[in-house]
From TrEMBL:
Protein name: Vesicle transport protein GOT1B
Function: May be involved in fusion of ER-derived transport vesicles with the Golgi complex.
Keywords: Golgi apparatus, Membrane, Transmembrane, Transmembrane helix
InterPro entries: Got1 (IPR045176), Vesicle_transpt_Got1/SFT2 (IPR007305)
Organism of provenance: Urocitellus parryii
Annotated GO biological process: endoplasmic reticulum to Golgi vesicle-mediated transport; retrograde transport, endosome to Golgi
Cellular compartments annotated: Golgi apparatus membrane
Protein family: Belongs to the GOT1 family.
Transmembrane segments: 12-30, 36-56, 68-95
Keyword Ion transport: no
Topological relation to the membrane, as annotated: Multi-pass membrane protein
GO CC terms of this entry: cytosol; endoplasmic reticulum; Golgi membrane
Taxonomic path: Eukaryota, Metazoa, Chordata, Craniata, Vertebrata
One Pfam family linked to the record: Got1
Amino acid sequence: MISLSDTQKIGMGLTGFGVFFLFFGMILFFDKALLAIGNVLFVADVAFVIGLERTFRFFFQKHKMKATGFFLGGVFVVLIGWPLIGMIFEIYGFFLLFRGFFPVVIVEFLRVELLGHLIIQFFFFP
């Protein structure tokens, strides 16, 4: 079992609330207030989970500046009141920022017994 510090536990809670508000904001036809709350919670949870210094180093690496610009620009656009355009920017920036993690996530999904079997059957043997 992974041991978490108190700040990491708070960050995981903020992650849950952030995902809830983002999901609920999209269900309610891109409600500005809910999406703004979800975005603020998501950015705050990253800082709580990995720490302020590591968050700054992750987002502001030289080769990730375009991705960071799109992601944080999308957050800003949602906060000023254009939620659909802001979410498009955020999603694009998110995929650019975290594209290095996707192969790891896929391998971990394949290692889960039932889920991995379903993924292999669905994608490789239609």
